[in-house]
Design a protein that fits this description.
With about 475 residues, the chain is mainly alpha-helical. It is built from 16 helices and six strands. Helix 1 crosses helix 6 and helix 3 packs antiparallel against helix 7.
């Protein structure tokens, strides 16, 4: 299997991982509210249950990212983290008490922490100009899972039988179903996932493993420069000097034959954090803006998701089937939105896409504040305003999600992408913890809940305007001089 085939198989497997994460969310979210009620849990347990998953991912994301930065491998990390998804899903299936249900989401969330390693791998394996499109496609896979998930609920809700000491019904069946899906994923990862070598973005996106070794024109230690206050991770020597950062040359595709003999160099991994400063990396203006955008958009999104199920049950009499169909339609819209953003990313800058997304989200929040906080006009009018509000909120989501991830990968050091993406996902995890907790206690006071959400959106919009000029990919400095080329 050549390099391109390995890369395609690996990207397919990553898409499948995100697809299953979307399916898991779609089969559990519509039913967990009634599941908790059956287990006699108080209303605030809904927020706890949704937040528990994010809490585990928040803590483990940077650790998995650091692991991938040090080893430059992700396959082992995915296989290891997926075990927690399997165990957590089975605990959810057991469902003896509300506390076991809460612990099941905590355990499953550990597996979600591997996402930081995956995003770091994608950053190293794609060129900057194609990165937004790749991220959009991967995120669309998760939304496809949100679309497919309700279809599984159509038959899972019909389950009513005994499996040994366990009862399989419409509330416990999502747990055993996802347990089986994650087990199958283990075999797919073993067969189709490859730790392919990264590309060199400085040299036009050529796979480093495909280039034969040569003597570097300029030694790495002579070419370290800084970008602003951050050590520049992109050292401009020849491609061959980058080969020293990979531990296993056997993983690289074979080099084409050459008549010129090349010098042999030891292949060892340098520690990616030796010249890394967390304060210098994450306290820069552009990074703070992007992390703030990550937090606010996910906080608002999860708060609205937490509010939706009780609201539709109270105002429109929706049950599990109606909620599943609603999430299915939402999935269609978001998938189309991601494909729209993927096309736009080829024509406009990431910061423009981010600005458009924030404007749409702000309009959606204003609409919900006006029409949903104190609904008037009868069932038909209330349902229509609810649909419009949800449509606007989902329309802005792909714009913000893709642009801020793509920009973040470009303004942070490439060699520590796993750790950096772990920090980004931890910030998002904190938002998905606080969002459900905030909304869970304020379902009866939507003016306060939506008002704070709107204030946060206005704040990040102002931050974006003030830092707009800095939200660009840093320029790469060419260190090799013409005199070196003539030697």
């Amino acid at each position: 299997m050549d390099y391109r085939q390995k890369k395609n198989c690996t990207f397919f497997t990553i898409g499948l991982i995100f697809l299953l994460s979307g399916i898991e969310y779609a089969v559990i979210l519509p039913t967990i509210w009634r599941y908790l009620q059956i287990l006699e849990a108080p209303p605030y347990f809904l927020g706890l249950g949704l937040s528990a998953f994010s809490l585990s991912g928040l803590l483990t994301g940077p650790l998995f990212g650091l692991w991938s930065d040090r080893t430059r491998t992700t396959k082992t990390i995915i296989l290891y983290s997926n075990v927690f998804e399997i165990v957590g899903s089975f605990m959810y299936f057991m469902g003896y008490s509300k506390w076991l249900l809460l612990c099941s989401r905590l355990v499953a969330g550990i597996g979600a922490g591997a996402g930081s390693s995956i995003f770091g791998f994608l950053t190293r394996s794609t060129r900057p100009e194609e990165r937004a499109g790749v991220f959009a496609a991967i995120m669309a896979c998760r939304q496809a899972g949100l679309l497919i998930g309700p279809a599984f609920n159509l038959f899972l809700r019909l389950c009513d039988f005994q499996l040994g000491p366990f009862v399989v019904n419409n509330y416990t069946s999502p747990g055993i179903f996802m347990c089986l899906m994650w087990i199958l994923l283990q075999f797919v990862v073993l067969a189709l996932y490859w730790d392919i070598p990264p590309i060199s973005s400085e040299e036009g996106g050529i796979a480093v493993g495909e280039i034969e070794e040569e003597e570097p024109l300029v030694r790495a230690e002579e070419t370290l420069e800084t970008y602003g206050t951050v050590w520049d991770d992109q050292i401009e020597t020849t491609l061959s000097s980058e080969i020293h950062h990979f531990q296993d040359p056997s993983q690289c595709p074979p080099s084409p034959p050459s008549s010129t003999s090349s010098s042999s160099h030891p292949s060892t991994i340098s520690n990616p954090l030796t010249i890394f400063s967390a304060s210098q990396e994450f306290l820069r203006e552009e990074v703070v803006v992007l992390l703030t955008a990550q937090f606010i958009t996910l906080f608002n999104q999860t708060a609205l998701e937490t509010m939706v199920t009780p609201l539709t049950q109270r105002s429109f009499g929706f049950g599990e089937l109606a909620n599943s169909l609603m999430y299915s339609l939402c999935g269609v819209e978001v998938i189309l939105g991601f494909f729209l953003v993927r096309g736009l990313s080829r024509q406009v800058e990431d910061r423009v896409v981010l600005a458009v997304g924030l404007v749409i989200c702000s309009v959606a929040c204003v609409w919900c504040l006006i029409f949903l906080a104190n609904p008037q006009g009868g069932y038909s009018w209330e349902l229509a305003t609810f649909i419009i509000g949800v449509f606007l909120q989902l329309l802005g989501l792909p714009f913000v999600a893709v642009s801020q991830v793509s920009l973040f990968s470009k303004v942070t050091a490439e060699k520590t992408q796993g750790f950096s993406q772990g920090v980004r996902r931890s910030v998002g995890g904190l938002a998905t913890i606080l969002g459900p907790l905030w909304a869970g206690g304020l379902t009866g006071n939507l003016y306060l809940m939506l008002g704070v959400m709107l204030a946060l959106l206005l704040m990040i919009t102002v931050m974006l305007i003030l830092s707009y000029d800095r939200l660009v990919e840093p320029k790469v400095v060419q260190h090799a001089q013409s005199s070196d080329n003539g030697e």
